[in-house]
Amino acid sequence: MPFLAHRRRRPVVAAIAGAAALALLAGCSTNPSSTAADAAGTQTVRFQTSWIPLVQFGGSYVAAKQGYYEKAGVDVQILPGGPETDGLALLASQKADVAVSNADVVARANEQGADLVIIGAGFQKSPLAIMSLASDPIETPADMKGKKIGVPSGDEGTHAAFLKVNGLTGGEVTSVPVSFDVTPTTSGQVAGQYVFATEQPISAEEKGFTTHSMLLADHGLNVYAQVYVVTKTYLASHRAAVEDFMKGEIEGWQDYAKDQSEAVDLTVDDYGKDQKLSVANQTEQAKLQLPLLETDVTKAHGLFWMDSADIDENLATIKALGITADKSLFDTSVLQDLYKGRSSL
User: Fold this and answer.
1) DSSP helix/strand/coil, 255
2) For 4-126+223-339, which CATH superfamily applies?
3) Residue-wise pLDDT tens digits, 112-149
């Protein structure tokens, strides 16, 4: 999957490189009708996804197909992302209204002067993991001692932070530069490598290998992934539209949680048809990301919920990554207003 090289890293670089522009736009914006209303009064919300069309965004596709956005009172334009798309910059320039990102990327942008806030967490756990062969699995950080671990360019800081929070040193683990191809692990060049647990293991499986993925989130280094982000200015001026959009999102992902088949079909046959995706591949990805979407917290409080203890864990990880942030990075009021103490809509 060659596109993975850009998937997390380019937004981080863009957030830093474009910090001055983000700060300027955040400070000067009057946000003139970035959410437009049609003749019937329906609000249009431009939703910028973080990557090319995949079942990763399947719940949103279901929400559109089933009319959940329309029922909530908004017309949602789902905009595909890609290696050259920086959703956070598009928010700042008012070319998008809601975007998908990762909590640490949003924190980095705010550290550099942006005006962003996270209003929901699609994936309660980061999919970042260390993949190893099932025949010689890396099941705990201690299993990394004395072994070679493949670290893609741009993940060096994450690797160093992961070792630190688990009491390991660079001298105990040999870091080997790798790309996003699974060959270094499947060929035995390294004992394991950093991957997205929802994607590259599927590639290894398609090549005939059985793998084990150790989520970093289960071992002290977790940030919310696929978070919903808006500018604070936009949230203040278009709160009703934001709540209506999030209501439609929740209903679409609730359907996804029950049955991923519609999301897979919409991804393969409609939104991602130009990607020549296979039903088998997208079905497996949909299954693998379900435990990231549904946790004990979301079962108790609803999808996308941001629990105070999890927010604290996110902030601890963000600090370990060398980024300054505090609880103002997260706004839980939208979800509180929608759920009103319930666990579903």
Assistant:
1) helix
2) Periplasmic binding protein-like II (3.40.190.10)
3) 999 999 999 999 999 999 999 999 999 999 999 999 99
* pLDDT at res. 37: 53
pLDDT for residue 42: 85
Residue type, 32: P
The three-state (H, E, C) secondary structure of 154-196, written as one string = CCHHHHHHHHHHCCCCCCCCEEEEECCCCHHHHCCCCCEEEEE
Spatial strand order of the sheet with 74-79 comes to 74-79, 43-48, 98-101, 225-231, 116-123
pTM: 0.89
Question: What's the alpha-carbon Rg for the chain, to the nearest Å?
Answer: 20
Break the chain into its structural domains and give their ranges.
4-126+223-339, 128-219
Same fold, 4-126+223-339 and 128-219: yes
User: At which residue do the structure tokens 């370990």 appear?
Assistant: 320
Q: How far is it, in rounded angstroms, from Cα 340 to Cα 343?
A: 9
At 36, list the tokens: 């437009």
Full DSSP string of 259-296: --HHHHHHIIIIITGGGT--HHHHHHHHHHHHHHH--H
Residues of the chain with pLDDT under 50: 1-36, 38-39
Residues 6+ apart with CB under 8 A from 160: 170
129 φ, ψ (degrees, to nearest 5): -150, 165
CATH number for the domain running over 128-219: 3.40.190.10
What are residue 99's phi and psi, to 5 degrees?
Answer: -135, 160
DSSP symbol at 42: P
Per residue in 66-90, is it b (16+ CB within 10 Å) or e — as a string?
Answer: eebbeebbbbbebbbbeeebbbbbb
Q: What angle is formed at CA 241 by the lines to CA 266 and CA 294, rounded to 5 degrees?
A: 50
